[in-house]
Input
Amino acid sequence: MNLNMIRSTWTAFENASGIGPIRDTDHYARMVALADALIDSGQAGDGGELAGLFGVVCELIADYDRQHYPVPDASPRDVLRFLMQQHGLTQADLPEVGNQSVVSQILSGRRLLNARQIAALVARFGIGADALIERQPEQIH
Output
């Protein structure tokens, strides 16, 4: 491993790309813009010439997000309640879950979401299924 060669190429690469631990919101915005540009280039996917760079940029962004925007643990019913509030929905506005009575039972904790309901909510709201799957107490961090 030639550290002198790495040092000289790293400095040039860092100056050109801004790659490195994200320091502030401006740097964060530049890294998000770089990730977007990599996606738009068509070279960020599996086997793409810039896939490795895209992976590094995404990890830097994810690390910053974990440090600065932690997501609190929430039960699936709390997630559903939040989604309803954010979208101005009533219990009757969720036919993919069931009738108003079924939604009420889920929100009160008397009933769990099933796989079909979770899939429908994922499709409707564009969220990850893991937010709607009930976890055992030892799985909650």
